[in-house]
Write a structure and sequence with these properties.
This protein folds into 5 domains: 80-151, Immunoglobulin-like, CATH 2.60.40.10; 156-250, Immunoglobulin-like (Sandwich); 258-339, no CATH class; 346-463, Sandwich (Immunoglobulin-like), CATH 2.60.40.3500; 478-697, 3-Layer(aba) Sandwich (Aminopeptidase). Helices cover 15% and strands 36% of the residues. The protein is built from 7 helices and 44 strands. The strands form 9 sheets. Strands 11, 13, 16, 17, 22, 23, 24, 25, 26, 27, 28 and 29 form a 12-stranded mixed beta sheet that branches. A 6-stranded mixed beta sheet has the order 40-39-41-44-42-43, with helices on both faces. The radius of gyration is 38 Å and the shape is flat.
Length: 702
């Protein structure tokens, strides 16, 4: 038997294995039969004898495999507070804007009250603060976070000069106290003299403004003098506070060394009233071109709030020594001084009058590059004392060029069919001569520029009125669009961190406007077409170089108050007011803003005189309702359409129908004069990837 199992061990093993498999198969078959039996047992017979099978749904839970996706959990966006920027913040105003972003599908509660948000999650609300600590508790997604805003009642918020200063003998320096507008008294005391500081213009709702004054240093001192600091005192609502700045040093008087000449070394130098020490840009002043010479009189005017300083010229004007050039940190040198002598008087000769398609040129021979001033008149302004140079209507009928130190103007000007001027007259004054150029029509002036050419001649360039041969046709019209900010200068931040900053929104709207204007035949150039950093001077030089028929600067406003809203349209020079009026009136029909404003502004680009310049502030990026429209591309397309309508209406005003052709006035419904090419949905070029002022006169209100 042992030999039998040993001999047939392998066959037996195989047989047993097969038999086992067969038995298992039989058992499995019987199980299936039993299941089938149960299924058929569940059948029922209907009344007509047919068989109905009741469906049984069997759920099979399978194991995860590479082809199956794991169920995903909903990702909830975090709560991001953009204002205040820190969880413990100190402020000096009783109202404060709290803003940020969150997931709109999750309730957001602030101090027990649910916050209203945009569909995209942004929110911004104004809160009133009590003196001392104010706690704001946010509840969101099961978590609570607290912010503290400390409100300190402050009379004087800041002052200048705030550090040691050394000034030239005979100089004037401005003192500034940023104090509450309702202060009963703000004074400054220096070198034994006390003066009352004067409040500067401020907007409705603002609680603080600059109070300014100035002191003049002694002259004739052979050595430096340490005169001590400036004491500032402010009183408001029974609270009085005083602060004293570090010491002021009066340097040795350089006038003891002889006369000094000021030379303009920048391409242009803005002028300021010589009998003031303020930092106000005024349209009643004008620019001096590179190479202009004049004597320096007295000391320097120092404006510590902006960091600017000025030379006083003998002609009664002031010019910058250096100036800011935002956003660059380096200051620009405008003028330099050196010892020398100038002729006692100047002699002017009219050299050439030339009328071309776009401009009228008048060239002058001069004995030396003496200063001059350009002013339009007669023209009244709303409230110059409050730095408001808006106009109710254009009343000017002539352009005056005043040549200082001039004892004669030789030659004649005869205008024959000139598009701007009809005649000229020469007027003698005690301090020089005026060349008065009479306009063909009241208010019909469009810009000027002046420079010395390579022959040393002073050449004036006057912009002719645009030639419009057909309504709603901008062929031959050149327009510069300036999308504000860009690059490292983002402008006002959006309500959501790192997205929708002002610079990006400006560029997007500018592209839409460009496409619409071009559909009507306009030649459109933009100061920037990418997310590029540009300084104030670069923009102004770009505009002068392009010398267009019109410039439109695109910006968006911002405020520390969440409730501030609306669109604003501004100009600086009176000859830009007409273009502003047309664009403002057209935009007002769009219903984009709860409030709209038209007026005057010292915005640096608007101070360029070579053409009409319109500054547009297309809503407050800090306001919830405005912001919703600012980030909505369809709304921006409509805004561009309305601005385009205003531009068309402005240039249509130059059209004279001499052929009795039909009036095809633009109604804003079609895209071009003949139904024109429609704007693509994405107004930005397909390959374009958007990465995301000088003194109180530079920049906008953002």
């Amino acid at each position: 038997m042992k030999r039998f199992f040993k001999k047939y061990k392998i066959p037996l093993t195989v047989g047993i294995t097969i038999l086992s498999a067969a038995i298992l198969a039989l058992i499995f078959a019987l199980a299936i039969a039993e299941d089938a039996k149960e299924i058929f047992a569940s059948q029922s017979t209907s009344s007509n004898g047919s068989v109905t099978i009741e469906e049984e749904i069997i759920y099979v839970e399978s194991l995860p495999s590479e082809s199956q996706e794991e169920p995903t959990e909903q990702v909830i966006a975090p709560l991001v507070i953009t204002s205040p920027s820190a969880q413990d913040t100190t402020v000096t105003e009783p109202s404060f804007a709290i803003s940020g972003t969150s997931d709109p599908s999750v309730p957001l509660v602030l101090n027990g009250q649910e916050i209203t948000r945009l569909e995209s999650g942004e929110f911004s609300i104004d809160v009133e603060l009590k003196a001392g600590n104010n706690t704001f508790d946010f509840e969101y997604n099961g978590e609570k976070i607290s912010y503290i805003v400390r409100y300190n009642f402050t009379v004087i918020k800041a002052y200048a000069p705030y550090e040691k200063q050394s000034y030239e003998a005979g100089s004037s320096f401005v003192v500034v106290a940023l104090a509450r507008v309702d202060s009963s008294s703000v004074t400054a005391t220096f070198n034994g003299k006390t003066i009352k500081l004067i409040p500067q213009p401020y907007k409705d709702g603002e609680l603080f403004t600059n109070f300014t004054g100035s002191f003049t240093l002694p002259t004739g001192n052979e050595n430096d003098l340490n005169l001590g600091g400036v004491k500032f005192t402010g009183s408001c609502n029974g609270v009085t506070k005083s602060y004293t700045s570090p010491g002021i040093t009066c340097l040795r008087d350089k006038a003891l060394d002889g006369t000094q000449i000021v030379e303009i070394v920048a391409s242009q130098a803005e002028t300021f009233n010589g009998d003031t020490t303020d930092d106000w840009s005024r349209p009643t002043n004008s620019y001096l071109p590179k190479g202009t010479l004049d004597y320096k009189v007295g000391g320097i005017v120092y404006e510590p709030d902006s960091g600017n300083s000025y030379y006083n010229l003998r002609c009664g004007k002031r010019v910058y020594i250096t100036k800011n050039n935002a956003p660059a940190t380096e200051r620009v040198t405008v003028s330099k001084v050196y010892k020398g002598e100038l002729p006692e008087s100047n002699s002017i000769g009219i050299s050439k009058l030339e009328t071309k398609e776009k401009h009228t040129y008048i060239s002058f021979d001069t004995l030396w590059k003496a200063p001059f001033a350009v002013e339009i008149g007669p023209q009244s302004y709303t409230n110059p004392a409050k730095q408001d140079y808006s106009i109710s209507s254009a009343t000017y009928s002539y352009i005056d060029i005043k040549f200082f130190y001039t004892d004669e103007i030789r030659g004649d000007l005869e205008f024959v069919d000139n598009p701007i001027f009809k005649d000229a007259e020469i007027i003698e004054k005690s301090d020089g001569f005026i060349l008065r150029l009479h306009l063909n029509n009241v208010g019909a002036f469009y810009g000027w520029n002046a420079e010395y050419n390579d022959k040393g001649q002073l050449v004036f360039e006057f912009l002719n009125p645009p030639t419009v041969t057909k309504k709603n046709d901008l062929t031959g019209i050149k327009i510069v669009i300036d999308p504000g900010h860009g690059g490292r200068d983002i402008g006002a931040p959006g309500l959501r961190q790192d997205t929708n900053p002002e610079a990006e929104r400006n560029l997007s709207l500018a592209y839409k406007l460009k496409a619409k204007l071009e559909s009507y035949g306009a030649t459109v150039v933009m100061t920037r077409t990418t997310d590029k950093t540009m300084t104030a001077d670069e923009r102004c030089e770009f505009l002068r170089r392009e010398s267009p028929d019109l410039c439109i600067s695109i910006h968006h406003d911002s405020s520390t108050r969440a409730s501030a809203s609306g669109g604003s349209f501004f100009c600086f020079n009176a000859f830009s007011d007409e273009a502003v009026k047309y664009i403002y009136n057209s935009t007002a029909t769009g219903g984009f803003y709860k409030e709209m404003k038209k007026g005057w502004h010292y915005f640096y680009m608007a101070r360029v005189t070579s053409c009409p310049v319109v500054l547009t502030e297309n809503g407050f990026i800090s306001n919830l309702d405005d912001f919703a429209g600012i980030i909505d591309e369809s709304t921006n397309t409509k805004k561009a359409d309305k601005i385009t309508q205003g531009v068309l209406n402005y240039f249509n005003s130059f059209y004279k129908n001499v052929a009795n052709e039909p009036d095809n006035s633009y109604n804003g419904d079609d895209y071009g004069p003949n139904g024109g090419p429609q704007e693509p949905e994405d107004a930005l070029p397909p390959d374009e990837d958007l990465e995301t002022e000088e003194n109180n006169n530079i920049g906008d209100e953002e």
